[in-house]
């Protein structure tokens, strides 16, 4: 593309993590649901183990409830994957002096998120790193009115060094300072 325009594509819900979570929730929920039905009808609906001897009240009802909830969550994840919620791109244009942030949302009247900021309103970029058992890195666009807009979703699988390199590249491209925050 043009060297005066930088475009970063954002992966939405169509990622390996979402697919795995959807399948795990569906099959675990189906197992719980069938175990609950087995306890109600006193027939074994699962080939793995005999669940017909489970007392329906309260264990069977709880199994049905959790199974229904897990299947419902897997259906919700299926729809977010189908609609690719959260996907889009960030476009940094030196020719227009604009930053455009576009994301897909749920279907309906406001299904697309479109944000546009002029370069003159940018204060700096902020590289935020949270350390601990689950370290996360995020790059924020900090505006002069103190708003902080995340440029990349937190669930993007980039190492802290990759995220830092991307933040440095963006700050050089936009010619704005980069602030490092480590928590």
Alpha-beta classification:
alpha+beta
> What does the largest sheet look like?
4 strands, antiparallel
- As laid out across the biggest beta sheet, the strand order is 1-2-3-4
End-to-end CA span: 36 Å
The whole-angstrom Rg is: 23 Å
Based on Cα principal axes, name the global outline.
Answer: elongated
CATH overall fold name of the largest domain: PH-domain like
Number of strands: 8
**What is the tally of helical segments?**
3
- Spell out the CATH superfamily of the largest domain: Pleckstrin-homology domain (PH domain)/Phosphotyrosine-binding domain (PTB)
State the CATH class of the largest domain.
Mainly Beta
Low-pLDDT windows of residues: none
H/E series:
EHHEEEEEEHE
Main location: membrane
Subcellular location: Cellular thylakoid membrane; Membrane
InterPro entries: PSI_Ycf4_assembly
Keywords: Membrane, Photosynthesis, Plastid, Thylakoid, Transmembrane, Transmembrane helix
Tell me what the structure shows.
With 183 residues, the chain is an alpha+beta fold. The chain has two domains: 16-83, no CATH class; 86-182, Roll (PH-domain like). The protein contains three helices and eight strands, in the order βααββββββαβ. The protein has helices at residues 16-41, 56-83, 160-174; strands at 5-10, 88-93, 98-104, 112-118, 122-130, 136-143, 148-150, 178-182. The protein has a four-stranded antiparallel sheet with strand order 1-2-3-4, with no helix packed on it. The protein has a four-stranded mixed sheet with strand order 7-6-5-8, covered by helices on one side. A hairpin with a 4-residue loop joins strand 6 (136-143) and strand 7. Helix 1 runs antiparallel to helix 2. The radius of gyration is 23 Å and the shape is elongated. The two termini are 36 Å apart. Belongs to the Ycf4 family. This is Photosystem I assembly protein Ycf4. Seems to be required for the assembly of the photosystem I complex. It is a multi-pass membrane protein. InterPro entries: PSI_Ycf4_assembly (IPR003359).
């Amino acid at each position: 593309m043009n060297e005066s325009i930088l475009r970063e594509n954002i992966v939405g819900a169509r990622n390996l993590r979402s697919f795995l979570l959807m399948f795990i929730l569906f099959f675990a929920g189906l197992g719980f649901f069938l175990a609950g039905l087995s306890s109600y009808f006193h027939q074994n609906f699962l080939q793995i183990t005999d669940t017909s001897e489970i007392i329906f009240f309260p264990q069977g009802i709880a199994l049905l409830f959790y199974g229904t909830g897990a299947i419902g969550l897997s259906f919700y994840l299926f729809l977010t994957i189908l609609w690719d919620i959260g996907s889009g791109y960030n476009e940094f244009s030196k020719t227009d002096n604009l930053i455009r942030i576009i994301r897909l949302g749920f279907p309906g009247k406001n299904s697309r998120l479109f944000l546009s900021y002029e370069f003159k309103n940018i204060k700096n970029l902020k590289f935020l790193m949270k350390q601990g058992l689950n370290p996360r890195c995020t790059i924020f666009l900090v505006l002069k009115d103190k708003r902080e807009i995340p440029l990349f979703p937190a669930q993007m699988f980039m190492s802290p060094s990759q995220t830092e390199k991307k933040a440095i590249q963006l700050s050089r491209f936009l010619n704005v300072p980069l602030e490092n925050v480590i928590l």
